[in-house]
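Closing statement on the (2S)-amino(carbamoylamino)ethanoic acid sub-project.
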Amino acid sequence: MHNLGQTRSCKRNNFFLLTPDTFVRTVLPGMKACCAIVHVSAAAGANFVQYTAEFESGSELGGTDAQRFIYVLEGSLQLEVDGRKKELAANAYAYIPEGFQHRVIAGRSSRAAVIEKPYQQLSAVSAPQLLISTEGQISSHALGDDPDLQVKCLLPDEMAFDFAVNTMVYQPGAALSMVEMHVMEHGLLMLEGGGIYRLDDSWHSVTAGDFIWMAPWCPQWFGAIGKTPAKYLIYKDWNRHPLAGRPHESRG
Ligand code: UGY
Ligand code: MN
C-alpha cells in the first residue's frame, strides 16, 4: 500500500534515520539465497558498513576482507570455522577477525545485524581473536548513576578492538542524561520499544526496526516512551587515536 510519499525516514549531512518502509534489499557478492539491507557504508561517509542480512533456509552469507561482527536477530545461524560448526541462536553474536576464513550458513529463515570494518592495527597490540558469545552471558551496568538505563558491552574492554558494540536498555521514561556530541560515529538498530531521538537539531519518533547512523559529533539524545522498555544495538569506533587511519596531507 502506498503512503502518499510520507515516511519517517530522513537523511541529513550529520545523520540519517531509516525506517523499514524505505528498506531496499540487495545481494552482496558471495551471498546465496540471502539478501542485505545496507544501512550505511562509505557511500554516506561512514568508516564502517552495517547491514541486516536476511537468510532463507539453506542460505549463506558471502565473505569479507574486513573484520566482521554478527548479531543474530531472529532464527539461528551456523558459523563454520576450521571445519567445525557453531550454532548462533537469537541474541548470540560472533566477532570474526580480519582475514579469518569462515562461512555463515542458515538452516532456517533468519535475520542478523552485520557490521564490517577494516581493522586498524595498533603496534605492540595483537589483533583480537575469534569470539563467540551470547548477550545473556554479558552482565549489564548502569550508564552514569541511572539504574533504569542498562548497558551491555558485547566486546571485551581491550585496546585490541577498534570498535565497540553495545546493547542499551531504557526503562519507560528513562533518557540519556545529556546531549552527547563526540568524535565516534554510531550505527544504531532499534531492537525493542521506542521513543524520541534527538539527532542534530531535530527530534524523531523511533521504534523497533529503525536504523540510525550518526556522524562524528552529531548531537544525540534519546528518551524512551511507551509502557515497555526500549532497547537498541549500537556500534561505535573505539580505542583509536583520532589521527589513526587519516591520510597524511601533503604540505608544500
Ligand atoms: O556509547 C554511546 O556513545 C551512547 N551513549 N550513545 C547513544 O546512545 N546515542
Ligand atoms: Mn553516543
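The longest strand covers residues 49-60. With this model delivered, the sub-project is considered complete and its resources will be redirected to Aim 3.
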